[in-house]
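#onboarding

Welcome to the new folks! Below is a worked example of what a typical request in this channel looks like: someone posts a single protein sequence, and someone else replies with the predicted structure as tokens. Don't worry about understanding the tokens yet, we'll cover that in week two.

Example request:
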Amino acid sequence: MKLVIQRVSKAKVEVNNETVGKIGQGFLVLFGACQGDTTEQADFLSEKLCNLRVFSDGNDKMNLSIKDIDGELLVVSQFTLYADCRKGNRPSFINAAKPDKANELYEYFIDKCKRTIKNVQKGIFGADMKVTLLNDGPVTIILEK
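Example response:
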């Protein structure tokens, strides 16, 4: 399981020109599942994400978590995080989890985050999504388990 986390001032995701998820300050999370991933990994990563201290405190030090600042989450599924580009010029996605399993883990991960974060938004699994964000920092972190 892989997360690409971007600290944002705001972000939104649209499907067919309709906004399906929108947040203010917080994290835009690109979520990818690979074959063999488990709910235990999702548990670990949701806990790590919600406690990741990358927001500034009163001394302008990265010392606060998203829950400390009452931040928001926008989680977008992205199987292309498991692109294998070692051979040729066309990526292989053979390592990505099958859609049914990936969606199950995606929804599970979101539910776990909702237990800690008040506003958790999401994209639509498998849809052609347009993501807009205002990266804050920029701060981008990759977590894997």
